[in-house]
Design a protein that fits this description.
7 helices; signal; Butyryl-CoA Dehydrogenase, subunit A, domain 3; disulfide bond; binds 2-acetamido-2-deoxy-beta-D-glucopyranose; Pectinesterase inhibitor domain-containing protein; mainly alpha; enzyme inhibitor activity
Length: 174
């Protein structure tokens, strides 16, 4: 009996795990059907690494989790830039980096609103607030281009952009 119960629990666990994996793959496939394979790959890879996204059982959950995933990325990136400033690592781009911190803060605020939007099932609102957040990485890079200086965080901004596109695509599917 004990064995049977364990077996049932184990099966349920496996089943839940499989559902989550399928949800991520199916949602990413639908979201990036018209995009290069790399967009799908990035979507699956990014969400599979995120415990909350992996635990999601509905597209709503996944939209919420992937938005939180972006917020964590932004906070992480903000930490990197703040540390660079503190260490005075880049003397000639201090103002540019500070400007980027401001963009990240605005994006973070937009994400917070987007989370509230998703929770209240206002997916259009979530979509426009995520679109607003999507501007941050490009605005940051544009500032470096205009100043004719080399951005030390181009790669991070590219990854951030691709990470925001995920919940943005999901909210259009809801
Ligand atoms: C984003 O907002 C959260 C609170 O919702 C906060 O903990 C975090 O430090 C903020 N990150 C940035 C980059 O402003
Ligand atoms: C964010 O969502 C709110 C609804 O909560 C909406 O009124 C607002 O226009 C959205 N913001 C942007 C920048 O689209």
């Amino acid at each position: 009996m004990k064995f049977l119960v364990s077996l049932v629990i184990f099966s349920l666990f496996l089943n839940g795990f499989a559902t989550a994996q399928t949800l991520i793959q199916d949602s990413c496939k639908k979201a990036f059907a018209k995009d290069p394979q790399s967009s799908y790959d990035f979507c699956v890879e990014s969400l599979t690494q995120d415990p909350q996204s992996k635990a999601a059982t509905t597209l709503e959950d996944l939209a919420l989790a992937s938005t939180k995933n972006v917020a964590a990325k932004i906070t992480n990136l903000k930490g990197i830039v703040a540390q660079d400033l503190k260490d005075q690592r880049y003397q000639d781009i201090v103002e540019d980096l500070k400007l980027c911190l401001g963009f990240y803060k605005d994006a973070n605020d937009s994400l917070k609103t987007a989370l509230a939007n998703i929770k209240s099932r206002d997916y259009d609102g979530a979509n426009s607030n995520l679109s607003a957040a999507l501007n941050a990485p490009g605005d940051c890079e544009d500032d470096f281009k205009e100043a004719e200086k080399k951005s030390p965080i181009t790669n991070e901004n590219n990854i951030l952009y691709k990470t925001i596109v995920i919940p943005l695509a999901f909210t259009t599917m809801l």
